[in-house]
Amino acid sequence: MSFQNPVFIPGPTNIPESLRKACDMPTIDHRSPLFGQILHPARAGVKKVLKSETAEVFIFPSTGTGGWETAMTNTLSAGEKVLAARNGMFSHRWIDMCQRHDLDVCIVETPWGDGLPADKYEAILTADKNHEIKAVLATHNETATGVKSDIAAVRAALDAANHPALLFVDGVSSIASMDFRMDEWGVDVAVTGSQKGFMLSAGLAIVGFSQKAMEATQSAKLPRTFFDVADMGKGYANNAYPYTPAVGLLNGLNESCKMLLDEGIENVFARHTRIANGVRSAVAAWGLELCANDVSVYSDTVSAIRTPDSFDATEIVTHAASKYGVAFGVGLGEVAGKVFRIGHLGSLTDVMALSGIATAEMCMVDLGLNIELGSGVAAAQEFYRGSTADNQMGAA
């Protein structure tokens, strides 16, 4: 692989030089007021990115998986029932975590390529007259399949059923890249990580808790120590953590939020949509299809591209790495070998995206697929030329 080439995996994403420098800092006393000058602005910045006025933001030395565990263990008790759809590898892993924590998971099996079935959620919630379901799990952006789901529709299903369950949303590959409205959508716990839209290395689990979720922490009985938000909150009140924090990454997160908000969060979303549309134009020109089954669920952060049935899509990924020093994502779970994934999120511009499209195209031609060299690049070029790109990552 080459450190000179951008990566096109769905995370970790490319790190802007300014953020790398922000993370590279001298050691400071993490129990001093100086640390508070990093911690509290970072939490405030995340809150703005989540579009929340009231969320309590907690940042753990972990990844998105730790954020999932934080959501569950702080709000639920063993044996309680949760509702989830399995429509990809990451929703599957969240379900698995719930089961390992002795939660009773009502699973709605959903085709990989479809979004969350809000109508089925509503029917199940309506039938739950005794309100045994305590939480609804929703993967906003299924990274394995390149599928986004309508979180507003899931909230509407809860409201239509007049159901008090908490709404947990996995926004690991959507938050800070795609429109996310914590307050408006009534999200009770939002989960993300540092290595996707925030353009940092892996190492931070970032979660937002609604006031309703904070109230649930008072009765939750699942065991928790490292991920205890009550302990974390007490630490924050004293400009500290209950243990040693990842100070450099937190400083990077503070700068990342400034960068995103300076670009304008709506501009960030528009940039991701534009770049994604260029990739989708290339896919169409190649005569291939996305794993996502309908345009309404196309992800703006990752495209999972189906290859012909007789072809192992993983070969594209390995060939790109070995011959061109470029990283793409392999298919996972049910779509392993059937798709390869182009990640188009984080620190990325139209011009950078074109290099990834060109590399994927060369790999497919090298491997004998019936692709016309230059067709996808030309289609993406035409799209980017005709779209507005006033701000290409600003100061990134």
Detailed description of the structure:
The protein is built from 13 helices and 13 strands. It has 396 residues and is α/β, with parallel strands linked by helices. The chain folds into 2 domains: 17-262, 3-Layer(aba) Sandwich (Aspartate Aminotransferase, domain 2), CATH 3.40.640.10; 265-386, Aspartate Aminotransferase, domain 1, CATH 3.90.1150. The two termini are 23 Å apart.
Average pLDDT level:
96
CATH architecture annotation of the largest domain: 3-Layer(aba) Sandwich
CATH class of the largest domain, please? Alpha Beta
Uncertain ranges? none
- Spatial separation of the terminal alpha carbons: 23 Å
The H-level CATH homologous superfamily of the largest domain, spelled out, is Type I PLP-dependent aspartate aminotransferase-like (Major domain)
| β-strand number | 13
Number of domains: 2
Count of helical stretches: 13
Morphology call: globular
Main beta sheet: strand number and arrangement? 7 strands, mixed
Helix-residue proportion: 40-55%
Sheet with the most strands: spatial strand order: 1-9-8-7-4-2-3
**Topology order in helix (H) and strand (E) letters:** HHEHEHEHEEEHEEEHHHHEEHEEHH
Overall SS class: alpha/beta
CATH topology group of the largest domain: Aspartate Aminotransferase, domain 2
Strand content: 5-15%
C-alpha-based Rg, rounded: 21 Å
